């Protein structure tokens, strides 16, 4: 049996649900009272996919402004980045775009990107047009997922690979 | 009401070095919170035009009745004065932060050589009334010019609201240009005008040779800490003294540095004087809130000392060795294991020591951050006394499922997370194997020790600080101090005692104070500080006897209550 190691970094504004998404992946739970991440948290996630042993190391970064300068430390050493925005906050979507720019500038294209529109259980409060988001993801060659850490919609890891 | 007494003092002065908890080889920098404060305030960190602290330019405007009229020569003082503390505490509860409602006399009794100029300036427009009225015709500093009058009226209403004013202590942080950064109570956006007035006060007085430090009106005090980039203000109706409030502001200031570093702060304001610092401090408010709440409860701050989790010394040595042997990583500066705001052990790089203030900020970071419980974390932290110019990187993880003990590995190398993660796992295995985690859990759950274990019936509670170790010990808060109100009152008594003994105009060695609910004895030597609380009917000689007995008891237990060695990597 072969095993694969992957390094993943999760980026996005504060409060968009990065930690919630990671916790959903790692332990398949949702806790509505998570507190904001300080610095960055490290998770590992092991699973079997198609007879491959997959070991993913995840850096869940803090969205708070003062930690932004620390981000390169994490994405420089990653294979893939998940960029998360909150579908109920246009601001978080714009912020996600600025993350993309930063990644494009500072990594030489070897970082796979993937965009998550989180909190899609809150459809009635949606501020970010889904087509716009799809277009944007396509324009940077990234896949786009509508997800919800709360309902676990869209968060089956197999889909990611 | 204070009388000098010459006999009856504690008989056997304990030789320095043999007092309980004496440490020849302390891992913490031994400090005195007040001495430290004094040197801190006179350092040259202030902006150049405000650099005249040492020339006696601290302006203290004090209500005449507050002026102490005691004999400065007395080193031993005895007093019977229940009203001193109790009344002030009652007042504290009754009054709101309504400065205009309390009798505001013309500010008098200025305690500085430059007093004339200050009186003149202030006399034109009593600062206290400015603050309470906040009428819109006061000239507004630059930060407020964007406000329309509607907003201002709303603000004025807000600061007059009962809800806002009933708070006992307000703390504000503003930039040198008067921009609001933080308010302990209420949304700082609604306090733009108030902060503008504060900034105006600071700058009007700062224009001359003076530095605004304190305004007192009745039971209300406003204390100002003016630093290079920030102005910090405490407005309190409490018995806390000016130096005590100033010390708290110093802590808040250092908390800002801990989040941002001094160099970053200076750079930001050099580039843009008007910068809205809240952008960089989002999410850090809870550190200020938590710090201020803890400072209202925990004597470690005014004592300038750290409390250790009681443990058998052999157990503590095992823990320290488990850490020292498994964390041999280049550039690892400190490894710290803590539980419940108490130190379990600290292993350090040979040439470095930790300042208690820095350790208090670490405690604050851990107790205010739930997120460390979810996963291993890696975060920058500045320890201002260690190096205010830069960050250390902290690997933070809990050792047990219940999240009792938390291990912090602090390094200057930002790339060693995975190395430290391996160290942590090895350390944890050792701690499990040698049953250290179980011992820690037992001690945490036991919640310290009880006063009754000392075997002195009339003794209710005490604080004991070993000065050389910069550590203190105290029993659990039991009846009558088990309720929040009573514990707060006890805390106030300790603050009162500490302040009276340390008061720079008349430092005392021993203070015996008879109140209506309890009798207090404070005793400070070059080796220790002891604050003891007895029932109200205890005589002075009985109290002194008890204290001697207490010291013997602490000496017997010192290996459990204090960390007397200083492990290194
Ligand atoms: N309704 C809903 N709420 C969510 C969802 N995901 C997260 N939240 C909530 O959003 C808030 C923020 O979630 P976090 O996971 O802490 O956000 P974060 O991106 O990690 O935030 P930082 O660590 O500060 O950067 C929490 O109150 C979550 O309960 C979701 O899918 N649906
Ligand atoms: Mg998070």
From TrEMBL, chain A:
Keywords noted in UniProt: Nucleotide-binding
Keyword Nucleotide-binding: yes
Database matches in InterPro entries: P-loop_NTPase, Small_GTP-bd, Small_GTPase
Gene3D superfamilies associated with the record: P-loop containing nucleotide triphosphate hydrolases
Presence of keyword Nucleotide-binding: yes
Gene Ontology MF terms: GTP binding; GTPase activity
Similarity annotation: Belongs to the small GTPase superfamily. Rab family.
Descriptive protein name: Uncharacterized protein
UniProtKB/TrEMBL annotation, chain B:
Recorded superkingdom: Eukaryota
GO terms for biological process, alphabetical: protein targeting to vacuole; vesicle-mediated transport
Pfam families linked: Fuz_longin_1 (PF19036), Fuz_longin_2 (PF19037), Fuz_longin_3 (PF19038)
UniProt domain FUZ/MON1/HPS1 third Longin: residue ranges: 458-558
GO cellular component terms attached to this protein's record: Mon1-Ccz1 complex
Disordered: annotated span: 1-27, 45-75, 128-150
Limits of the FUZ/MON1/HPS1 first Longin domain: 169-291
InterPro entries linked to this entry: FUZ/MON1/HPS1_longin_1 (IPR043972), FUZ/MON1/HPS1_longin_2 (IPR043971), FUZ/MON1/HPS1_longin_3 (IPR043970), Mon1 (IPR004353)
Domain FUZ/MON1/HPS1 second Longin: 330-427
Family: Belongs to the MON1/SAND family.
Function statement: Plays an important role in membrane trafficking through the secretory apparatus.
Name of this chain's protein: Vacuolar fusion protein MON1 homolog
Species whose genome carries this gene: Capitella teleta (Polychaete worm)
Organismal lineage: Eukaryota, Metazoa, Spiralia, Lophotrochozoa, Annelida
């Amino acid at each position: 049996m072969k095993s694969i190691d992957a390094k993943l970094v999760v980026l996005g504004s504060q409060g968009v649900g990065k930690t919630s998404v990671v916790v959903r992946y790692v332990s398949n739970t949702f806790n509505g009272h998570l507190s904001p991440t300080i610095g960055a948290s490290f998770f590992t996630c092991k699973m079997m996919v198609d007879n491959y042993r997959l070991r993913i190391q995840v850096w869940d970064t803090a969205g708070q402004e003062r930690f932004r300068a620390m981000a390169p430390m994490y994405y420089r050493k990653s294979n893939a980045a998940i960029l998360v925005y909150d579908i109920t906050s246009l601001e978080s979507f714009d912020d996600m775009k600025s993350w993309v720019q930063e990644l494009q500038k500072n990594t030489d294209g070897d970082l796979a990107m993937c965009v998550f529109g989180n909190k899609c259980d809150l459809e009635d409060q949606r501020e970010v047009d889904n087509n716009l988001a799809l277009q944007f993801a396509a324009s940077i060659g990234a896949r786009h997922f509508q997800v919800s850490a709360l309902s676990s919609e869209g968060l089956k890891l197999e889909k990611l690979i | 009401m204070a009388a000098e007494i010459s006999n009856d003092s504690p008989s056997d002065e304990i030789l320095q070095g043999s007092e309980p908890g004496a440490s020849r080889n302390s891992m913490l920098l031994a400090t005195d919170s007040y001495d430290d404060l004094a040197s801190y305030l006179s350092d040259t960190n202030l902006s150049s035009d405000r650099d005249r602290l040492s020339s006696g330019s601290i302006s203290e405007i004090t209500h005449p009745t507050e002026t102490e009229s005691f004999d400065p020569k007395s080193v031993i003082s005895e007093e019977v004065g229940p009203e001193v503390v109790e009344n002030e505490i009652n007042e504290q509860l009754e009054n709101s932060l309504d400065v205009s409602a309390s009798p505001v006399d013309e500010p008098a009794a200025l305690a500085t050589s430059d007093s004339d100029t200050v009186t003149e300036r202030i006399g034109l427009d009593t600062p206290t009334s400015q603050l309470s009225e906040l009428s819109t015709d006061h000239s507004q500093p630059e930060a407020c010019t964007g406000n329309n009058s509607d907003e201002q009226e709303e603000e004025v209403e807000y600061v007059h609201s009962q809800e806002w004013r009933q708070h006992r202590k307000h703390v504000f942080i503003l930039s040198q240009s008067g921009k609001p950064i933080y308010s302990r109570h209420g949304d700082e956006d609604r306090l733009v005008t108030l902060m503008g007035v504060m900034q105006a006060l600071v700058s009007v007085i700062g224009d001359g040779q003076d530095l605004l430090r304190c305004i007192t009106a009745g039971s209300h005090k406003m204390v100002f800490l003016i630093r290079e980039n920030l102005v910090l203000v405490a407005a309190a109706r409490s018995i806390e003294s000016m130096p005590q409030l100033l010390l708290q502001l110093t802590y808040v200031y250092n908390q800002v540095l801990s989040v941002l570093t001094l160099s970053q702060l200076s750079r930001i304001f050099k580039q843009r004087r008007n910068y809205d610092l809240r952008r960089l401090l989002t999410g850090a408010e809870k550190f200020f809130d938590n710090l201020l709440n803890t400072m209202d409860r925990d004597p470690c701050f005014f004592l300038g000392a750290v409390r250790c989790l009681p443990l058998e010394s052999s157990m503590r040595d095992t823990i320290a060795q488990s850490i020292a042997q498994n964390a041999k990583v280049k550039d690892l500066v400190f490894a710290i294991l803590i539980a419940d705001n108490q130190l379990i052990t600290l292993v350090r790089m040979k040439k470095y020591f930790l300042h208690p203030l820095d350790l208090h900020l670490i405690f604050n970071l851990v107790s205010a951050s739930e997120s460390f419980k979810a996963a291993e974390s890696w975060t920058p932290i500045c320890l201002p006394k260690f190096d205010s110019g830069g960050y250390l990187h902290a690997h933070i993880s809990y050792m047990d499922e219940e999240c009792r003990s938390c291990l912090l590995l602090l390094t200057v190398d930002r790339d060693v997370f995975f190395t430290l993660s391996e160290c942590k796992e090895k350390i944890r295995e050792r701690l499990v194997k040698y049953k250290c985690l179980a011992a820690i859990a037992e001690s945490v759950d036991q919640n310290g020790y009880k006063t009754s274990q000392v075997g002195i019936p009339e003794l209710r509670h005490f604080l004991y600080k070993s000065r050389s170790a910069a550590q203190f010990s105290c029993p659990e808060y039991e009846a009558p101090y088990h309720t929040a109100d009573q514990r707060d009152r006890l805390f106030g008594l300790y603050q009162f005692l500490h302040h009276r003994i340390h008061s720079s105009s008349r430092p005392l060695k021993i203070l015996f104070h008879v109140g209506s609910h309890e009798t207090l004895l404070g005793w400070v030597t070059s080796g220790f500080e002891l604050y003891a609380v007895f029932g109200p009917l205890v005589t002075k000689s009985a109290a002194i006897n008890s204290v001697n007995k207490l010291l013997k008891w602490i000496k017997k237990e010192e290996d459990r209550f204090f960390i007397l060695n200083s492990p290194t990597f």
